[in-house]
Each structure stands twice: as C-alpha cells, then as structure tokens.
Amino acid sequence: MDRIDFALLEHLQRDGRASNKELAAEAGLSASSCHERLKRLNGAGVIKGVHAALDPRAVGVGLEAMISLQLRDQSRMPDVWDGLLALREVRAVFHLAGAVDLLVHVAVRDADHLREVAVMRVAVLPGIGHIETALVFDAVERRALPLYAAP
Predict the structure, then answer these.
(1) Mean pLDDT, the chain cut into blocks of 10 residues (151 residues total)
(2) Would you call 69 exposed, middle or buried from its count of C-beta atoms within 10 A (0-12, 13-18, 19+)?
(3) Which of 2, 62, 84, 116 is found 20 to 30 A from 45 (Cα to Cα)?
(4) Same structural domain for residues 78 and 18?
C-alpha cells in the first residue's frame, strides 16, 4: 500500500458513503484509477465493509455492558467463542491475556434483558468458570483506525 491507498482509506473511514468521484478527487486520481484501487483493497481484505453508525436508543438499546469471562477449561474456547458470536446482543468479543480470558460487549434493552443474556445464555456456555458484568454508563468510540505503513 502506498500513500494514495492510505489517503483513500482515511477518507473512507471518515465517510463510508463517499462516492468514487469524491474519493478520486481527494486522492488526486482519475475515477477509473480510484475504482481499481478500491477494488484491489476490497479484494485483499483491507476494507472489510462499510457500516451505518446507529443511535442505540433509537433502535431500542437502553443498556450496554461488558461481561468478563474466565474459562475453567481453555480447550472449550472455540465452543465459547461460537456460542457468544451466535448471540445477537453481542457486539464484540475480545480474547485477552491476563486474569480475564474474554471480554464481551453486549447491547440489550434493559437490566432484565441483561440478566437473561448474562445468566441464562452466557454463563451456561461450556467451559465458563467465572463471569462478571460491568455496566457501561457512557462511551466514546473512535471509529477510525490509525493507519501505519507496513514495516
């Protein structure tokens, strides 16, 4: 990847709905050259998708939480991972080093829904040893990744 690819990626992170014409102008390319670069970046898996950022409250999400999991049986990690990703309330799963094995970000309607997800659907997954839930009061997400040139 070169500086032009990085310029295109920076712009796309700011505005995922930018047209090819806008991106080409921003990067100083012809529309066809821009299209080919984007096609290459998509094909290489650099661009994984373009998503709409939604207001959680507008779509019925009243509460978010982080669920910390310690596994009693590390060999069950694939089963736990698959079980978590099958839950529509799960927004992200992080595999960590340290006392916590997995950190799970969930979005739910309310406290009753959180209890159902944490106790009835997460804690019962095979291999779970300890579960702890922390409520998210507020969050600021930096959507754009910092872009670094390959070493």
Answers:
(1) 93 93 94 96 94 92 98 94 97 96 98 98 96 95 83 53
(2) buried
(3) 84
(4) no
